[in-house]
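Form 7-S
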Amino acid sequence: MRSARVRDPIGRLFLALVAVACATLQACKREGPEAAPQAPAAVRVGAENVATVVREEISTGPLISGTLMAERDATVRAEAGGSILQLSVAEGQPVRRGAIVVRIEDQALSDAHASAQSAVRSASQVLEVAEREAARTERLVRAGALAERELDTARNAVTAAQAQLADARSRLASAAKQLAHLTVRAPIDGVVAARPANVGDVVSPGSELVRIIDPRSMRLEASVPSEALSLIKVGLPVQFQVNGYPGQKFEGKIERISPAADPVTRQVSIFVTIPNTAGRLVAGLFAEGRIAQESRRALVVPLTAVNADSNKQPWVLRARDGKAERVPVTLGLRDEQTERVEITSGVNEGDRLLVGAAQAITPGTPLTFTETPNSQS
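Output:
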């Protein structure tokens, strides 16, 4: 009986240890999977947060803005007063130099011209009579039939008749010139840009009748900041866009630079010649662009794709092998107008870069894309 009581505590201890071991084993089984680190979840990135590295033209230079004007234009004004009888042109119609565009009626000028013609005929007859009389008097003086003073009187009459004829002819020329002003002709080849007058209007000298421009002679009158004056010179190419042709680029060259800056804006005016043989550009359109100081074809991305801290090397967040990867890059030309920048090293053409809010993604995070990424953000 004594030995049975001694073994019983030992058995109970053994059973307790076994129970603890089992409990520990069960706890380890429960805690094991929860303690293992989990892989990060993939982040879904929309197309608006992705930009593709592309190879295209990029330029730098001072920005400009201005208005398209015609190098050659003419405002045709009335040189004589009267009522408009005929207007043979309309807005938008091409005209040739010398073509009749307006006819004006002025009865007073017509009457003055007819009177001047009559005066010339009368003065011519008086001169003929005076010359015949002078010749007859000269013969009689030679024959001794008349005194010498009679010849002097006849010759003075001829001189007076000549002066009268010259005055009549001058009046006739002036009347003919005034009469010619009643027929208005186009001074240049071009297109009618405005026609403020109408048939039946009574105009006075100086009234505007027609405005003609030559669309082949377009120029851009623009201005640049005075700080950029050292960067421009005659002959530099200028690239610009106009509000009438969105997305299309036009090009010209600097022909002249103003020698004085605007005292208020401190802007310097430049004049750019534009080849407009097709006649697409229209005077009065607003244009903006840049003087192409430097231009080349290179790898280009939006500025929003580059994290450029002044104290650190610029970097981009690239999507590669399904994960975000931080890549240091080297920058080249920077186009502030189109908000693009050249990358000279660090990425390749076709690489996908994260932009906007997606740049906050931690490098190494798996990525999935909702749509095909765009080339620009």
